[in-house]
Amino acid sequence: MTAKKNINLLIQLLADGQFYSGEWLGQQLGVTRTSISNYIKQAEALGLDIHSVKGKGYKLVAPIELLDEALIRSLSEQKAVDVFPVLDSTNQYLLDRLDQLTPGATCMAECQTAGRGRRGRQWVSPFGSHLYLSMYWQLEAGMGAAMGLSLVTGIATVNALESLGVDGVQLKWPNDIYVEGKKLAGILVEMSAQAAGPCQLVIGLGLNVKMPAAAAEGIDQPWTDLEQMGASGIGRNQLAARLIMAFAQSLSLYEQAGLEPFLTRWQALDAFINQPVNLIIGPKTISGIARGIDAQGALLVEQHGVIKPFIGGEISLRLAQA
Protein backbone atom coordinates (compact mmCIF):
# COMPACT_ATOMS: atom_id res chain seq x y z
CA MET A 1 0.00 0.00 0.00
CA THR A 2 1.04 3.61 -0.55
CA ALA A 3 1.99 5.82 2.39
CA LYS A 4 -1.28 7.80 2.05
CA LYS A 5 -3.38 4.64 2.26
CA ASN A 6 -1.36 3.43 5.23
CA ILE A 7 -1.87 6.74 7.04
CA ASN A 8 -5.62 6.57 6.38
CA LEU A 9 -5.76 3.01 7.70
CA LEU A 10 -3.71 4.02 10.74
CA ILE A 11 -6.20 6.79 11.51
CA GLN A 12 -9.10 4.35 11.17
CA LEU A 13 -7.41 2.02 13.67
CA LEU A 14 -6.85 4.86 16.15
CA ALA A 15 -10.28 6.49 15.69
CA ASP A 16 -11.80 4.81 18.78
CA GLY A 17 -9.41 6.64 21.10
CA GLN A 18 -7.87 3.47 22.57
CA PHE A 19 -4.16 2.67 23.00
CA TYR A 20 -2.51 0.47 20.37
CA SER A 21 1.12 -0.56 20.40
CA GLY A 22 3.43 0.35 17.56
CA GLU A 23 4.10 -3.36 17.07
CA TRP A 24 0.41 -4.20 16.70
CA LEU A 25 -0.21 -1.26 14.36
CA GLY A 26 2.74 -2.36 12.25
CA GLN A 27 1.32 -5.86 12.00
CA GLN A 28 -2.04 -4.52 10.81
CA LEU A 29 -0.42 -2.37 8.13
CA GLY A 30 2.36 -4.80 7.24
CA VAL A 31 5.10 -2.27 8.01
CA THR A 32 7.86 -1.76 10.58
CA ARG A 33 7.49 0.11 13.87
CA THR A 34 9.77 2.79 12.43
CA SER A 35 7.27 3.28 9.59
CA ILE A 36 4.46 3.54 12.13
CA SER A 37 6.38 6.29 13.94
CA ASN A 38 6.74 8.18 10.65
CA TYR A 39 3.05 7.74 9.83
CA ILE A 40 2.11 9.04 13.29
CA LYS A 41 4.09 12.23 12.61
CA GLN A 42 2.36 12.67 9.25
CA ALA A 43 -1.05 12.12 10.85
CA GLU A 44 -0.21 14.76 13.47
CA ALA A 45 0.71 17.16 10.66
CA LEU A 46 -2.88 16.82 9.40
CA GLY A 47 -4.16 18.20 12.70
CA LEU A 48 -4.70 15.03 14.74
CA ASP A 49 -3.75 15.12 18.41
CA ILE A 50 -2.05 11.77 19.12
CA HIS A 51 -0.80 10.73 22.56
CA SER A 52 2.22 8.43 22.88
CA VAL A 53 3.10 6.50 26.08
CA LYS A 54 6.09 4.21 26.34
CA GLY A 55 4.97 0.63 26.89
CA LYS A 56 1.36 1.37 25.87
CA GLY A 57 1.65 2.78 22.36
CA TYR A 58 -0.41 5.43 20.61
CA LYS A 59 -3.92 6.81 20.99
CA LEU A 60 -5.94 9.80 19.86
CA VAL A 61 -6.45 12.25 22.69
CA ALA A 62 -10.19 11.96 21.94
CA PRO A 63 -12.03 9.49 19.69
CA ILE A 64 -13.35 10.76 16.35
CA GLU A 65 -16.27 9.76 14.16
CA LEU A 66 -14.91 9.33 10.66
CA LEU A 67 -17.12 10.27 7.74
CA ASP A 68 -18.91 7.31 6.17
CA GLU A 69 -19.73 7.91 2.51
CA ALA A 70 -22.32 5.11 2.26
CA LEU A 71 -24.07 6.22 5.46
CA ILE A 72 -24.24 9.87 4.39
CA ARG A 73 -25.66 8.86 1.01
CA SER A 74 -28.30 6.76 2.71
CA LEU A 75 -29.29 9.35 5.32
CA SER A 76 -29.37 12.26 2.85
CA GLU A 77 -30.94 10.30 -0.04
CA GLN A 78 -28.29 11.92 -2.24
CA LYS A 79 -26.26 9.39 -4.19
CA ALA A 80 -23.74 11.86 -5.61
CA VAL A 81 -21.75 12.25 -2.37
CA ASP A 82 -17.99 11.69 -2.39
CA VAL A 83 -15.90 11.60 0.79
CA PHE A 84 -12.10 11.87 0.79
CA PRO A 85 -9.57 11.62 3.62
CA VAL A 86 -7.55 14.62 2.39
CA LEU A 87 -8.13 17.22 -0.34
CA ASP A 88 -6.56 20.57 -1.01
CA SER A 89 -10.06 22.11 -1.12
CA THR A 90 -13.53 20.57 -1.48
CA ASN A 91 -14.63 23.62 -3.47
CA GLN A 92 -11.69 23.27 -5.84
CA TYR A 93 -12.37 19.56 -6.32
CA LEU A 94 -15.85 20.35 -7.67
CA LEU A 95 -14.72 23.41 -9.65
CA ASP A 96 -12.26 21.19 -11.51
CA ARG A 97 -15.10 18.83 -12.51
CA LEU A 98 -18.01 21.13 -13.38
CA ASP A 99 -18.77 19.38 -16.68
CA GLN A 100 -19.18 16.04 -14.88
CA LEU A 101 -21.61 17.13 -12.17
CA THR A 102 -25.37 17.25 -11.64
CA PRO A 103 -27.07 19.69 -9.22
CA GLY A 104 -26.75 18.49 -5.66
CA ALA A 105 -23.46 16.66 -6.19
CA THR A 106 -21.53 16.95 -2.93
CA CYS A 107 -17.90 16.57 -1.94
CA MET A 108 -16.56 16.24 1.60
CA ALA A 109 -13.13 15.75 3.12
CA GLU A 110 -11.78 14.86 6.54
CA CYS A 111 -9.01 17.41 6.06
CA GLN A 112 -8.22 20.27 3.68
CA THR A 113 -4.63 21.28 3.03
CA ALA A 114 -5.60 24.49 1.22
CA GLY A 115 -9.05 25.29 2.57
CA ARG A 116 -10.10 28.83 1.81
CA GLY A 117 -12.65 31.31 3.05
CA ARG A 118 -14.01 34.55 1.71
CA ARG A 119 -11.58 37.20 0.42
CA GLY A 120 -8.77 34.66 0.02
CA ARG A 121 -8.41 33.84 3.71
CA GLN A 122 -7.24 30.43 4.87
CA TRP A 123 -9.84 28.14 6.46
CA VAL A 124 -8.25 26.09 9.24
CA SER A 125 -9.14 22.47 8.41
CA PRO A 126 -7.71 19.87 10.82
CA PHE A 127 -8.40 16.18 10.19
CA GLY A 128 -11.65 14.68 11.46
CA SER A 129 -12.53 17.67 13.62
CA HIS A 130 -15.08 19.67 11.64
CA LEU A 131 -17.19 19.45 8.49
CA TYR A 132 -15.85 20.61 5.12
CA LEU A 133 -18.62 20.27 2.57
CA SER A 134 -19.15 21.60 -0.94
CA MET A 135 -22.19 21.26 -3.18
CA TYR A 136 -22.61 21.90 -6.90
CA TRP A 137 -25.66 23.74 -8.23
CA GLN A 138 -26.68 25.34 -11.51
CA LEU A 139 -28.91 28.37 -11.96
CA GLU A 140 -30.48 28.65 -15.39
CA ALA A 141 -31.23 32.33 -14.80
CA GLY A 142 -27.51 33.17 -14.88
CA MET A 143 -25.08 35.15 -12.75
CA GLY A 144 -27.56 37.80 -11.67
CA ALA A 145 -29.66 35.18 -9.89
CA ALA A 146 -26.73 34.08 -7.73
CA MET A 147 -26.48 37.25 -5.64
CA GLY A 148 -28.39 35.91 -2.64
CA LEU A 149 -27.00 32.41 -2.66
CA SER A 150 -24.74 32.70 0.39
CA LEU A 151 -27.67 34.11 2.38
CA VAL A 152 -29.91 31.18 1.42
CA THR A 153 -27.16 28.69 2.24
CA GLY A 154 -26.69 30.33 5.64
CA ILE A 155 -30.39 29.91 6.38
CA ALA A 156 -30.22 26.28 5.24
CA THR A 157 -27.30 25.69 7.63
CA VAL A 158 -29.27 27.10 10.56
CA ASN A 159 -32.29 25.01 9.56
CA ALA A 160 -30.17 21.84 9.58
CA LEU A 161 -28.66 22.68 12.97
CA GLU A 162 -32.04 23.50 14.51
CA SER A 163 -33.46 20.21 13.22
CA LEU A 164 -30.82 18.52 15.40
CA GLY A 165 -31.63 20.61 18.47
CA VAL A 166 -28.92 23.28 18.12
CA ASP A 167 -30.39 26.66 19.06
CA GLY A 168 -29.06 30.20 19.33
CA VAL A 169 -27.43 30.27 15.87
CA GLN A 170 -27.46 33.57 13.95
CA LEU A 171 -26.31 34.86 10.58
CA LYS A 172 -23.89 37.62 9.69
CA TRP A 173 -24.16 39.14 6.22
CA PRO A 174 -23.18 37.83 3.78
CA ASN A 175 -21.71 34.42 4.60
CA ASP A 176 -21.02 33.72 8.28
CA ILE A 177 -22.82 31.68 10.93
CA TYR A 178 -22.44 33.09 14.44
CA VAL A 179 -23.24 32.12 18.01
CA GLU A 180 -23.04 34.84 20.68
CA GLY A 181 -20.68 36.91 18.56
CA LYS A 182 -18.36 34.01 17.74
CA LYS A 183 -17.95 32.35 14.35
CA LEU A 184 -19.30 28.80 14.10
CA ALA A 185 -19.16 28.39 10.31
CA GLY A 186 -18.43 30.16 7.06
CA ILE A 187 -19.75 29.89 3.52
CA LEU A 188 -17.85 30.43 0.28
CA VAL A 189 -19.75 30.57 -3.03
CA GLU A 190 -17.69 30.32 -6.21
CA MET A 191 -19.09 30.42 -9.71
CA SER A 192 -18.35 29.83 -13.35
CA ALA A 193 -20.59 31.61 -15.84
CA GLN A 194 -20.74 33.41 -19.14
CA ALA A 195 -22.48 36.74 -19.59
CA ALA A 196 -25.43 34.83 -21.03
CA GLY A 197 -26.43 31.32 -20.08
CA PRO A 198 -26.59 29.18 -16.94
CA CYS A 199 -24.45 29.90 -13.90
CA GLN A 200 -22.54 26.97 -12.42
CA LEU A 201 -21.95 27.28 -8.69
CA VAL A 202 -20.01 25.58 -5.96
CA ILE A 203 -21.20 26.34 -2.42
CA GLY A 204 -18.69 25.48 0.29
CA LEU A 205 -19.34 25.24 4.03
CA GLY A 206 -16.81 24.92 6.83
CA LEU A 207 -18.47 24.19 10.18
CA ASN A 208 -16.61 23.87 13.48
CA VAL A 209 -17.52 20.68 15.32
CA LYS A 210 -14.68 20.07 17.79
CA MET A 211 -11.67 22.37 17.50
CA PRO A 212 -8.29 20.85 18.44
CA ALA A 213 -6.22 23.10 20.70
CA ALA A 214 -3.31 23.25 18.23
CA ALA A 215 -5.59 24.32 15.36
CA ALA A 216 -7.22 27.03 17.48
CA GLU A 217 -3.89 28.81 17.81
CA GLY A 218 -3.98 29.65 14.10
CA ILE A 219 -7.34 31.47 14.21
CA ASP A 220 -7.30 35.26 14.53
CA GLN A 221 -10.98 35.92 15.36
CA PRO A 222 -13.50 34.83 18.02
CA TRP A 223 -14.77 31.32 17.24
CA THR A 224 -16.90 28.58 18.71
CA ASP A 225 -17.76 24.97 17.89
CA LEU A 226 -20.59 22.53 18.51
CA GLU A 227 -18.77 21.00 21.46
CA GLN A 228 -18.62 24.35 23.27
CA MET A 229 -22.34 24.77 22.55
CA GLY A 230 -23.11 21.48 24.31
CA ALA A 231 -23.97 19.71 21.06
CA SER A 232 -21.12 17.19 21.07
CA GLY A 233 -23.59 14.30 20.88
CA ILE A 234 -24.46 15.10 17.25
CA GLY A 235 -22.65 12.73 14.91
CA ARG A 236 -20.73 14.21 11.99
CA ASN A 237 -22.38 11.81 9.54
CA GLN A 238 -25.86 12.73 10.73
CA LEU A 239 -25.01 16.43 10.58
CA ALA A 240 -23.56 16.09 7.08
CA ALA A 241 -26.72 14.38 5.83
CA ARG A 242 -28.98 17.06 7.34
CA LEU A 243 -26.90 19.81 5.76
CA ILE A 244 -27.03 18.17 2.33
CA MET A 245 -30.82 17.84 2.53
CA ALA A 246 -31.28 21.40 3.80
CA PHE A 247 -29.01 22.79 1.07
CA ALA A 248 -30.85 20.97 -1.71
CA GLN A 249 -34.26 21.99 -0.39
CA SER A 250 -33.35 25.67 0.01
CA LEU A 251 -31.51 25.92 -3.31
CA SER A 252 -34.47 24.38 -5.14
CA LEU A 253 -36.83 26.92 -3.56
CA TYR A 254 -34.43 29.77 -4.32
CA GLU A 255 -34.21 28.69 -7.95
CA GLN A 256 -38.00 28.77 -8.23
CA ALA A 257 -38.90 31.83 -6.18
CA GLY A 258 -35.74 33.85 -5.55
CA LEU A 259 -34.91 35.42 -2.21
CA GLU A 260 -38.44 36.56 -1.31
CA PRO A 261 -39.45 33.41 0.68
CA PHE A 262 -36.30 33.73 2.80
CA LEU A 263 -36.45 37.42 3.79
CA THR A 264 -38.49 37.04 6.97
CA ARG A 265 -36.33 34.14 8.14
CA TRP A 266 -33.15 36.13 7.48
CA GLN A 267 -34.42 39.11 9.48
CA ALA A 268 -35.13 36.79 12.43
CA LEU A 269 -31.61 35.31 12.29
CA ASP A 270 -29.66 38.51 11.52
CA ALA A 271 -26.97 38.89 14.21
CA PHE A 272 -26.45 42.60 13.43
CA ILE A 273 -30.01 43.80 12.85
CA ASN A 274 -30.65 47.34 14.17
CA GLN A 275 -27.13 47.65 15.57
CA PRO A 276 -24.41 50.22 14.77
CA VAL A 277 -22.02 48.80 12.17
CA ASN A 278 -19.01 49.68 10.09
CA LEU A 279 -18.70 48.65 6.44
CA ILE A 280 -15.11 48.44 5.30
CA ILE A 281 -14.84 48.83 1.52
CA GLY A 282 -11.19 48.96 0.53
CA PRO A 283 -9.65 51.97 2.30
CA LYS A 284 -13.07 53.47 3.09
CA THR A 285 -15.20 52.90 6.20
CA ILE A 286 -18.95 53.59 6.18
CA SER A 287 -20.80 53.79 9.50
CA GLY A 288 -24.52 53.39 10.10
CA ILE A 289 -27.27 51.18 11.50
CA ALA A 290 -27.84 47.71 10.01
CA ARG A 291 -31.42 47.34 8.77
CA GLY A 292 -31.37 43.82 7.32
CA ILE A 293 -31.36 42.95 3.61
CA ASP A 294 -33.42 43.77 0.55
CA ALA A 295 -34.98 41.43 -2.02
CA GLN A 296 -31.70 41.26 -3.97
CA GLY A 297 -29.65 40.28 -0.91
CA ALA A 298 -28.01 43.69 -0.48
CA LEU A 299 -27.17 44.81 3.04
CA LEU A 300 -29.30 47.76 4.13
CA VAL A 301 -27.56 50.43 6.19
CA GLU A 302 -29.22 53.54 7.56
CA GLN A 303 -27.20 56.77 7.53
CA HIS A 304 -28.73 60.02 8.75
CA GLY A 305 -32.24 58.67 8.28
CA VAL A 306 -31.60 57.35 4.76
CA ILE A 307 -31.38 53.61 4.10
CA LYS A 308 -28.89 52.57 1.42
CA PRO A 309 -28.20 49.12 -0.08
CA PHE A 310 -24.67 47.73 -0.24
CA ILE A 311 -23.64 44.61 -2.11
CA GLY A 312 -20.37 43.15 -3.37
CA GLY A 313 -17.65 40.66 -2.62
CA GLU A 314 -15.16 43.09 -1.10
CA ILE A 315 -17.28 44.48 1.72
CA SER A 316 -16.42 43.60 5.32
CA LEU A 317 -19.16 44.08 7.90
CA ARG A 318 -18.31 44.67 11.57
CA LEU A 319 -20.10 45.84 14.65
CA ALA A 320 -19.16 49.39 15.56
CA GLN A 321 -17.17 49.65 18.76
CA ALA A 322 -19.15 51.09 21.65
TrEMBL record:
Keywords: ATP-binding, Biotin, DNA-binding, Ligase, Nucleotide-binding, Repressor, Transcription, Transcription regulation. It comes from the Bacteria. Residues 22-41 bind DNA. This is Bifunctional ligase/repressor BirA. Acts both as a biotin--[acetyl-CoA-carboxylase] ligase and a biotin-operon repressor. In the presence of ATP, BirA activates biotin to form the BirA-biotinyl-5'-adenylate (BirA-bio-5'-AMP or holoBirA) complex. HoloBirA can either transfer the biotinyl moiety to the biotin carboxyl carrier protein (BCCP) subunit of acetyl-CoA carboxylase, or bind to the biotin operator site and inhibit transcription of the operon. GO terms for molecular function: biotin--[biotin carboxyl-carrier protein] ligase activity. It catalyses: biotin + L-lysyl-[protein] + ATP = N(6)-biotinyl-L-lysyl-[protein] + AMP + diphosphate + H(+). The lineage of its organism: Bacteria, Pseudomonadati, Pseudomonadota, Gammaproteobacteria, Alteromonadales. Gene3D superfamilies: 2.30.30.100, Bira Bifunctional Protein, Domain 2 (3.30.930.10), Winged helix-like DNA-binding domain superfamily/Winged helix DNA-binding domain (1.10.10.10). Belongs to the biotin--protein ligase family. Its EC number is 6.3.4.15.
